[in-house]
Each structure stands twice: as structure tokens, then as C-alpha cells.
Write a structure and sequence with these properties.
The protein has about 130 residues and is mainly α. The protein has one domain. Helix content is about 75%, strand content about 10%. Strands 1-2-3 form a three-stranded antiparallel sheet. Strand 2 and strand 3 form a beta hairpin. Helix 3 (about 35-70) runs antiparallel to helix 5. It is elongated and about 60 Å long.
Length: about 130
């Protein structure tokens, strides 16, 4: 099934993004989120897209399995590889567009205590990293 293959790739991307960030912090002593506003935005965007896509692909796989179990005679016509690709591409497009806000709502703030923060303007919250 195509959605399961995409889910495996996306779950691997989640692990690599998180592990790469941690590896850089442990080996170089630099937090990638604190490097620059562009690095912070890029990392947050990639992580949010991968996490959201992983969750929604589980929904797609569950819907596919539901159709296969509850409507086995229609499953051959409803659950085709072409439709699976279209659904996966549509879900990916929606999630990417939904998370584009990161590029204008998150930025680094330097405080006097040299702690780096990022602010999400849409919620008027400041999150300490």
C-alpha cells in the first residue's frame, strides 16, 4: 500500500530531524534553533510538517483499512494505488500550506540573560527553549 510506504518515509524523517538536531547540539555544542531566525523557522517548519503528516497518514491508512473491511466488494474500486497517491499528495499539500505560517510567526528574541526564545505571534505566547 502506497500510504504505508509514505508513512514509513515520513516517520523516518521525523526521527532524522530530531536526531540531527540533538546530534549537532551534543557534538558541536550549538543548538540549531538558536543559530538564526532562518534556522529556527526552517527546523520548526520541517518538524511540524513531518509530525502532522505522520499523524494524518495514519488517518489515511485507517480509512483505507476501514473500507477494505467494511466494504470488501467496493474496496477494489475505491482503494486503488492511484487514489492513494492522490490522497497522500493532497494531505501533504494541505499540511505544508497549513504550516507555512511558521515563516512569519516565529522569530528569535535575545534577552539580557542570553536565553534565546521564539515567539509565536498568533497565540501571543513566548516559549522558553
Amino acid at each position: 500500500m502506497y500510504a504505508l510506504q509514505v508513512l514509513a518515509v515520513v516517520d523516518t524523517a521525523v526521527l532524522y530531524i530530531s536526531a540531527f538536531k540533538t546530534w549537532i547540539r551534543l557534538t558541536a555544542g550549538v543548538e540549531w534553533l538558536h543559530a538564526s531566525t532562518a534556522a529556527c523557522r526552517t527546523l520548526m517548519f520541517l518538524l511540524l510538517v513531518a509530525l502532522h503528516l505522520s499523524a494524518w497518514l495514519i488517518v489515511v491508512v485507517s480509512a483505507d483499512r476501514f473500507v477494505a473491511i467494511w466494504m470488501p466488494l467496493k474496496a477494489l474500486t475505491l482503494c486503488t494505488p492511484r487514489r492513494a497517491r492522490i490522497v497522500c499528495l493532497a494531505v501533504t499539500f494541505i499540511i505544508v500550506v497549513t504550516n507555512l505560517h511558521v515563516f512569519w510567526t516565529i522569530h528569535l528574541i535575545q534577552r539580557l540573560s542570553s536565553q534565546t526564545l521564539f515567539r509565536i505571534h498568533s497565540f501571543f505566547q513566548t516559549v522558553l527553549l
